[in-house]
Design a protein that fits this description.
It is built from 12 helices and 23 strands. The chain is of the alpha/beta class and 428 residues long. The protein has 2 domains: 201 residues, Alpha-beta prism (UDP-n-acetylglucosamine1-carboxyvinyl-transferase, Chain); 214 residues, UDP-n-acetylglucosamine1-carboxyvinyl-transferase, Chain (Alpha-beta prism), CATH 3.65.10.
């Protein structure tokens, strides 16, 4: 369905146990990392099962604006990138990246390798999303990057990346470290990175390092605290497969928890590199059963859904999925470790608590999360989505059980999962 100009949609409740098979799109996190690394490699790489959504298209079009030859085929789900061996073709570019945080952080790091003048700008919310930690680290490595507010717009006065030593906090966004790691092989001298304090979303660093390894670059590391990168070059791969999106799958993993029955998500396994696959562990603790075949994962709902007390600092993008099913459990659910979610597309902690209360759910908001209490007395309401795709998708789950749930601005799901509501309808 086309949602671009649809003010709101009504979710149709499902009154029988589920028995459905669904497919989800390619991973945003994997697609965007592969786009950057393939552009830095020498030669062509075709990404198969690439994600075609607002975020990934912003990234691909930014590469085109920078002078890279990028062929996009949404029907075939392929993106072909002709890499320039660490050279950025155009010496000037003004890049518009909407509210694509990954693109903003990764491109800022990439542009430090160029030779020229570049800027990165986004929508109003992007001007509130931090990037100062990355800018400071790049400048300590000899780059010349400016931001007046600590958020975009960002201005890069590029003349290559000299290298050296840099440190950065790890508790704001792991994307800062990922961006720095991916461009570090093209610095003129070795790069040594130290992470200060705890690192959020560690699995995303594992994914970054995995993509770098796939393209032929090796680094030395001491856990998640210290990384050493010597000058190297990525090797173009010809064909590179993108994993299906574990974050997008979380909504369909969760549906049987509140509706009963089972849902099978194809082309996904527990062996994927994406950290959000660990959401299955959360569902198992709540009583769900997960079984796997060679090509799919099946989640079967429990007889009784149990609440959990869990630190979600490594899988914060799925915290809203958990929050949406938590009111249906028999015991309270506490979500901890997601302070960084306040800096995403919206303040996701505050927004989730606000919408749960509007639905009649008792919830306690904490600085780093929330505690959600069971209820049987939901109120029908229209969910404010705050232009946040994950709020829209997570709260749609409640509409599978509760009549009268509407989702405002449903088109915001185009950020990562344009046909989400079509796939959701398949559950019925």
């Amino acid at each position: 369905m086309s949602l671009a100009y649809t003010p709101k949609i009504t979710i149709t409740p499902i009154t029988h146990p589920l028995a459905s098979r669904v497919e989800v799109p390619g991973s945003k996190s994997h697609t965007n990392r592969a786009l950057l690394v393939a552009a830095l490699a020498e030669g062509d790489t075709t990404l198969h099962n690439a994600l075609f959504s607002d975020d990934s298209i912003y990234f691909a079009k930014a590469l085109i604006t920078l002078g890279f030859d990028v062929h996009l085929d949404s029907e075939a789900k392929t993106m072909t990138i002709f890499g320039h061996g660490g050279h950025i073709p155009n010496a000037t570019a003004d890049l518009l990246i909407g509210n694509a945080g990954t693109a903003a952080r990764f491109l800022t790091a990439m542009l430090s390798l160029g030779h020229g003048e570049y800027s990165i700008e986004g929508v109003k919310r992007m001007r509130q999303r931090p990037i100062a930690e990355l800018v400071s680290a790049l400048n300590r490595l000899g780059a010349h990057v400016e931001t007046q507010s600590g958020c975009p717009p960002v201005y890069v006065h590029a003349d290559g990346l000299p290298g050296g030593k840099a440190s950065m906090r790890g508790d704001v966004s792991s994307q800062f470290l990922s961006g720095l790691l991916m461009v570090a092989p093209y610095a003129q001298e070795p790069v040594e990175i130290t992470v200060e304090g705890p690192l959020n979303s560690k699995p995303y660093i594992d994914l970054t390092l995995g993509v770098m390894t796939d393209f032929g670059v090796r680094i030395q590391r001491d856990g998640y605290e210290h990384f050493n990168v010597i000058p190297q070059r990525y090797q173009a791969l010809g064909v590179y497969p993108i994993e299906s999106d574990a974050s997008a799958a979380s909504y369909f993993f969760a549906a049987p928890a509140i509706c009963g029955g089972w849902v099978e998500v194809s082309d996904l396994s527990r062996d994927v590199r994406q950290g959000d696959i660990a959401f299955l562990d959360v569902l198992e603790k709540m009583g769900c059963v997960v079984t796997k075949s060679e090509t799919a994962l099946r989640i079967t709902g429990p007889k009784r859904l149990q609440g959990v007390d869990i630190d979600m600092s490594d899988i914060s993008d799925t915290s809203m999925t958990l929050a949406a099913i938590a009111p249906f459990a028999e015991t309270p659910t506490s979500i901890r470790g997601i302070t960084s979610s306040r800096l995403k597309e919206t303040d996701r902690v505050a927004a989730t608590c606000t919408e749960l209360r509007r639905l009649g759910v008792q919830v306690d908001e904490h600085s780093d999360g929330m505690t959600i209490y069971p209820t049987e007395n939901f109120r029908a309401t229209a969910i404010h989505t705050y232009d946040d795709h994950r709020i829209a998708m997570a709260f749609s789950l409640i509409g599978l059980r509760v009549p009268g749930i509407e989702i405002e601005n449903p088109g915001c799901v185009a950020k990562t999962f344009p046909n989400f509501f079509d796939v959701l309808e398949q559950l019925g």
